[in-house]
Amino acid sequence: MCYMVYISTDCGDDLATQASGLVSFQTPSTGSQSPCPRPLKHQHKWFVGSKSGCSCTFRHLCRESVELGFGEPEEWYPEEADNIEATRRLYDILKSMVQRGFQVEVLDCWSGDEDKDVLRMDASLSRISRDQFRMFEGYLFTVTP
């Protein structure tokens, strides 16, 4: 199974132009691995891929560990440098959109679970640094500045 990350926003920017070797954006109708999830409410929807093609090489917490919250990488739990950098780049893109006044949601789920019930959480980027940011399996974040 693979992690799948989706965003929805009222921002009409072509996020595909923000792609790098670590982060890519595809509209769900033009080549993502899954259809667009039902819980996403904004007009512009994107599948967010990582260097693996799916979304596995971003920073994630499994649903059972969400109580750990947002947090910087720890020595006792090694993470790949590319995963950390990919997540930082995604954070920067999300932060840019919300600082410009756009609404943004981020969904993290397993492939095949896109339409399952999700838990919702606010993610204030003024309280979460780019090094602390990670996604939580089965959660839909409402991203705020």
Provide a descriptive summary of the structure in words.
It is a single chain. The protein has 145 residues and is an alpha/beta fold. The protein has one domain (3-144). The protein has 1 helix and 8 strands, in the order E-E-E-E-H-E-E-E-E. The strands form 2 sheets. The protein has a 6-stranded mixed sheet, covered by helices on one side. It has a two-stranded parallel sheet with strand order 4-7. The longest helix has 19 residues, at 81-99. The protein is globular.
Mean pLDDT: 93
What portion of residues is helical?
10-25%
Strand order of the largest sheet: 2-3-1-5-8-6
Structural class: alpha/beta
Largest sheet: 6 strands, mixed
In whole angstroms, the N-to-C terminal distance is 32 Å
Shape: globular
Following the backbone from N to C, one meets helices and strands in this order, namely: EEEEHEEEE
Number of strands: 8
Q: Low-confidence segments, ≥5 residues, pLDDT <50?
A: none
Estimate the strand proportion.
25-35%
Computed Rg = 14 Å
The helix count comes to 1
**Structurally, how many domains make up the residues?**
1
